[in-house]
């Protein structure tokens, strides 16, 4: 039977590279590109079909940062498919990034230099905003929208006799110290990206605890440092081009500089080939590239604990109730307003 695979944020970067690799792996696949920008999604679909002429590639409109869009997209998925084999939760944003140049220079001469290049610890801050649902945008996009998607798709993801997988594209930038359980949306800090990625690591752990018995397995990956729209948003492309030889050099010391989307998608592809029972729920699977140019996947322990992941899971369930209520009130208001307009006409 054909495998159904949904990839969020599939129109560029690591998501698109993953789609390409999956179609090369399994030509019978039914692939669904879940994207917010349908023009870019169409372009991605055409590019994939150029190399894989007979492939089944569907498009789904999804703005994972909008509650209404997630609910509508999930309805559409339930209407189209009777099961989901893989749901890759890859869409992600890092708005208004700022590199702390002084910390970078200081880091260059410290013993922590390799770790600094691998994780960007102490180097990066972002400016976050509120979205139209009243949620912090980074939290909503990188974490909550995906959580809501899973919740909506539970009838397909948790079926007796069938195993489904969700895979989170996390980051080496995920850090416990950037996350505060009392402020899970990171309203008050300057590292919303790091916080949201750490939250996804914990959520994956909680999902495994709650859903493995219902056939749903969750994994977390880190793609390494990859040249994509996201990284070109941190520093301009000419700068990255100038320092490219240095980056190749750094790769000898930290294999996390995967650099191309193809390499970055290594762990996502590798997980597609693994049996879920063989995976470690507490591990993050890293895409790595050695100095000699070999791609490989390596599990590394995550800094997560059961207790905090459970608190986060409960808080997300509570927030889900709140946003659903707010949305139905908003929709009822809109309907009443529309009716009033019709009547006065
Ligand atoms: N590049 C890197 O070095 C690293 C990246 N990552 C993670 O990898 C993932 C992919 O990023 P990457 O390929 O690098 O960057 P890209 O910017 O190329 O890809 C991000 C994708 O997410 C989509 N997206 C963003 N916001 C939304 C939204 N609200 N709804 C639906 N789709 C959305 C983008 O679509 P659109 O075209 O509409 O913007 C795009 O397709 C992210 O989760 C990122 O955090 C992790 C570690 C390192
Ligand atoms: C000489 C050289 C390589 C300079 C670049 C310095 C920094 C801009 C990078 C060093 C480590 C990088 C890094 C990321 C962004 C760019 C750096 C800070 C990420 C945060 C990008 C997104 C992620 O999810 C993880 C990356 C970790 C490493």
UniProtKB/TrEMBL annotation:
Gene Ontology molecular function terms on file: 3-beta-hydroxysteroid 3-dehydrogenase (NADP+) activity; 5-alpha-androstane-3-beta,17-beta-diol dehydrogenase (NADP+) activity; estradiol 17-beta-dehydrogenase [NAD(P)+] activity
EC number: 1.1.1.210, 1.1.1.270, 1.1.1.62
Chief localisation class: endoplasmic reticulum
Keywords of this entry: Endoplasmic reticulum, Glycoprotein, Lipid biosynthesis, Lipid metabolism, Membrane, NAD, NADP, Oxidoreductase, Steroid biosynthesis, Transmembrane, Transmembrane helix
Tagged with keyword Metal-binding: no
GO cellular component, one term: endoplasmic reticulum membrane
PANTHER family: 3-KETO-STEROID REDUCTASE (PTHR44442), 3-KETO-STEROID REDUCTASE_17-BETA-HYDROXYSTEROID DEHYDROGENASE 7 (PTHR44442:SF1)
Assembly, per entry: Binds to the short form of prolactin receptor.
Protein name stated in the entry: 3-keto-steroid reductase/17-beta-hydroxysteroid dehydrogenase 7
Biological source species: Channa argus (Northern snakehead)
């Amino acid at each position: 039977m054909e495998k159904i695979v949904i990839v969020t944020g599939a129109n560029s970067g690591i998501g698109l590279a993953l789609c390409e690799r999956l179609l090369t792996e399994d030509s019978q696949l039914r692939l669904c590109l879940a994207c917010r920008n349908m023009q870019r999604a169409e372009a991605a679909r055409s590019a994939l079909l150029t190399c894989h002429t007979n492939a089944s590639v569907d498009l789904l409109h999804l703005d994972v940062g909008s509650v209404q869009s997630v609910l509508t997209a999930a309805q559409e998925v339930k209407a189209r498919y009777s099961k989901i084999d893989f749901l890759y939760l890859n869409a992600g944003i890092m708005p208004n990034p700022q590199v702390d140049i002084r910390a970078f220079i200081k880091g260059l001469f410290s013993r922590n230099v390799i770790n600094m290049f691998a994780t960007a610890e102490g180097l990066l801050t972002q400016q976050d905003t509120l979205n139209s649902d009243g949620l912090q945008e980074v939290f909503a996009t990188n974490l909550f929208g995906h959580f809501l998607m899973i919740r909506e798709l539970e009838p397909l993801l948790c079926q007796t006799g069938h195993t489904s997988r969700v895979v989170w594209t996390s980051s080496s930038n995920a850090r416990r110290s950037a996350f505060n359980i009392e402020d899970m949306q990171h309203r008050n800090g300057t590292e919303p990206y790091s916080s949201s990625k750490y939250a996804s690591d914990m959520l994956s752990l909680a999902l495994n605890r709650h859903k493995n018995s219902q056939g749903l397995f969750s994994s977390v990956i880190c793609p390494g440092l990859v040249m994509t729209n996201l990284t070109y948003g941190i520093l301009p492309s000419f700068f990255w081009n100038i320092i490219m030889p240095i980056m190749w050099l750094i790769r000898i010391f930290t294999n996390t500089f995967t650099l191309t989307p193809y390499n970055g998608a290594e762990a996502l592809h590798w997980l597609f080939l693994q049996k879920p029972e063989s995976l470690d729920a507490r591990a993050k699977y890293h895409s790595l590239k050695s100095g000699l140019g070999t791609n490989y996947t390596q599990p590394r322990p995550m800094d997560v604990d059961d207790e905090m992941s459970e608190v986060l899971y409960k808080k997300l369930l509570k927030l889900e109730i709140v946003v659903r209520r707010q949305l139905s009130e908003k929709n009822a208001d809109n309907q009443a307003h529309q009716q009033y307009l019709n009547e006065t006409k």
